[in-house]
Amino acid sequence: MQLNSRLNRFLILSLCLISFSVDAQIDEPQAYILATGRRLPYLYSISLDAALDPTNNGTSKAIIARNKVALDRFDGQLVGDPANLILSEDSTEVYVVNHHGAIDNGEFLQHGGRGQVAVLDVAAAIDPGNDRTANAVLRHLDSGAFGAVGVALVPETLIISNAENNLTEDGGNRITFVDRRTGSLRHIVELALGTPAFTCEDYPVPHVAPYGPPSGLALQSRDPSFGCFPNPNGLAIGTSSEGRSYIFTANGGTNDVSVVDLQAALQGDKRAEIFRIPTQIAPWGISATPDAAHIIVSNAGSQQLPRAGNSLSILDVDLASRQSDEAEVARVLVGSDNQQDQTHPFITSVTPDGKEIVVPNYRADSVSIVNLEMALANDAGAEVARIPLQRSDGGPARPKGSAITRDGRYAVISGGAGSQPYANETGYIYIVDIGNRRVVSTITGVGNDPYGLTIVYR
């Protein structure tokens, strides 16, 4: 009797353990990389597990779906210009920024297209049955201006930085606020023009009738007339120790970062910009640390001069909110030990624990890892790793985008310069083991000139 009782308890415990193990396996979410294909306008869905399988290394086998970001034209032409993206808070939707809208990249050879945001259903986007279809597209939102790039979320609203003006690469100074459900344009913040070193012709800010877009703007970089308009690229949100939030925009036209009071903007203030922070040159990528106390800015390629930057600027949100000239608390050389090298750092990411920064170096064909604590201490060794990236065809890697898994183990890096014909899938994604400081897998065939990345768990 006692033996049977013990046996029953053992069997019950065993069944509970088996049930727990099965449930844990069932409940364990799978990770998927979402990557913008840019010149080849698909949103690529990639299984991280499949990408880490050694048998798939150097192939496109981990790609599970290529999602259209707009309906085809009536003549069947694939359209869209997906450059950036951001997940909704519950990860059910992804907002994909079409930099120049629903255009044919082979035909639209100028800048200054009307920005558009495609909203895709994530579950549909990672369904292999939807490969090369528009089934995941839910709706489109107009960005409210031209050359949309940076994007951030606040409740019910998308915040979008618009880097260009109508059919020109110069002339952008607008941050737009768009209702996420209806697409209604709720507000526009206009950034100030010029810098202490660059005087602009008289153009009203905020814009008022009867003034239209300024004439004589450069159609494309590089042009000596650049320097009046900020042309905001990346966008991030930081929060001060007092609990007030600020928008930071990486201004490629004026070589600085704007600080915009978010609460003032949401109350309708068109001039909610409170401060400018000069950086090395042409900031592009920008991200916030997990605690939102610091902003990381990459100094990239100039639109005015034939040169690029080679550093990260680290900004203190508290000091920026107080309009302190000391708000840039650190500047870190990345991608080279030579101060003269132009490494062109691009889209930054910060590990979930806030300890390390990952940044691809476009011209140096590498990815750098920077220790934030060392950087803030002005330690010359703050760049703790520099990992070379290679293509199997021997061409330059040209990395741009970055994202980090939620456990902080892997960074994913997009790479590959645009090349015609744009229908060719020439883009790469590199998976970097952050702890071991090495590339552990490469995915081929990811778009043409891919940019933004994110990682979703389902």
Written overview of the protein:
The protein is mainly beta and 458 residues long. The chain has a domain at 145-212 and 231-453: YVTN repeat-like/Quinoprotein amine dehydrogenase (Methylamine Dehydrogenase, Chain H), CATH 2.130.10. 11% of the residues lie in helices and 41% in strands. The protein has helices spanning 2-27, 48-52, 122-125, 262-266, 317-321, 372-376, and strands at 31-36, 42-47, 63-68, 82-87, 93-98, 114-121, 137-154, 157-165, 168-179, 185-190, 232-239, 245-251, 256-261, 273-278, 283-288, 294-301, 308-316, 328-333, 349-350, 356-361, 366-371, 383-388, 399-404, 410-415, 428-433, 438-444, 453-457. The strands form six sheets. A seven-stranded antiparallel β-sheet has the order 4-5-6-7-8-9-10. The protein has a four-stranded antiparallel β-sheet with strand order 3-2-1-27. The protein has a four-stranded antiparallel β-sheet with strand order 11-12-13-14. Strand 9 (168-179) and strand 10 form a beta hairpin. The longest helix has 26 residues, at 2-27.
The strand line-up of the biggest sheet is 4-5-6-7-8-9-10
Query: What is the CATH homologous superfamily assignment of the domain at 145-212 and 231-453?
Result: YVTN repeat-like/Quinoprotein amine dehydrogenase
**Distinct helical segment count:** 6
> Which radius of gyration do the C-alpha atoms yield?
23 Å
CATH topology of the domain at 145-212 and 231-453: Methylamine Dehydrogenase, Chain H
Overall mean pLDDT: 93
